[in-house]
């Protein structure tokens, strides 16, 4: 049975004052004018995954203004016979608190319960912008396969911040570095191994898949040379790099510097040189491949959040996308300005219309 949200409530979350939605496992097509609150709605769903959500916003930014009281999002996550009550809340913009079945839980725990993948318009420029966005995209896909990826990232980042502080303070005494570099090496080797394994799975999922979207050949760029596989070797490399890192005032070597290269496989053209439409198609293709791989591995496709995904697709591509999503069986939350964008979905989807009335978003169930 497909994992999906069967209920979603938002309270004082951005433009939404109070909404409660009952849903089934079908894709959710959301339409309404610009600024109505569609992206805000799927942003709330993106909080079901560890991290800052699809806008990378702080809990403070999500507080509904002008009241600025705090916000709450809840969801009932169904998967066959099992169900989990998830709740997220921020009191007056304080850091988000997570609870699972009524008990407080660390955010990273979410990665074990639910997978969420998204595409948003800001990612249209992913292939041509800075490595950070591609790295984040890669890590989100990696996290979907390996829930421990979030834990390793946290450990790595924390140790690296401390090491960077030593570097900036020009601390030269080696034993201050050793423990931090050991932590970075242990977690960093796991990050790299996870990323490589995720890319293998994506490649497999694209191989011979029946899809209208072009396959992307992905490779991991890890700096001047591939990063060492073994933690001990990474530790030695970090120790070796101290001098250069001190001159730079930060750590120059390690998985935090990795980048993702993509090639439009059938044409042999680098993703950054593809047309805008092709670049988008490659991202859609990867999200679908990721979802297929997860469905095969875990028995259920992930939740998909596809913001304005129909906008850049011609009618036949759009129909193909809908067919592939329905074949996957994913609860895909898709937004668009008008209902006509979703016509091809027909009874295969459920529909929500979002409008703005008197400064708040109103969400209504619709039939097409
Ligand atoms: N914290 C907030 N409190 C109240 N309104 C907000 C907040 N953050 C964003 N908004 C409003 O939400 C609206 C944008 O919603 P969005 O979901 O992006 O629209 P769209 O339907 O175009 O996707 C804007 O009118 C914006 O002013
Ligand atoms: Mg939007």
UniProtKB/TrEMBL annotation:
ATP binds at residues 32-39. One of its GO terms (biological process) is double-strand break repair. GO terms for cellular component: cytoplasm. The keyword S-adenosyl-L-methionine does not apply. Residues 24-359 form the AAA+ ATPase domain. PROSITE patterns: RECF_2. Transmembrane segments: none annotated. Keywords: ATP-binding, Cytoplasm, DNA damage, DNA repair, DNA replication, DNA-binding, Nucleotide-binding, SOS response. It is found in: Cytoplasm. InterPro entries: AAA+_ATPase (IPR003593), DNA-binding_RecF (IPR001238), DNA-binding_RecF_CS (IPR018078), P-loop_NTPase (IPR027417), RecF/RecN/SMC_N (IPR003395), RecF_2 (IPR042174). It holds the Pfam family SMC_N. One of its GO terms (molecular function) is single-stranded DNA binding. Belongs to the RecF family. NCBIfam families: recf. HAMAP family: RecF (MF_00365). The RecF protein is involved in DNA metabolism; it is required for DNA replication and normal SOS inducibility. RecF binds preferentially to single-stranded, linear DNA. It also seems to bind ATP. This is DNA replication and repair protein RecF. The lineage of its organism: Bacteria, Pseudomonadati, Pseudomonadota, Alphaproteobacteria, Rhodobacterales.
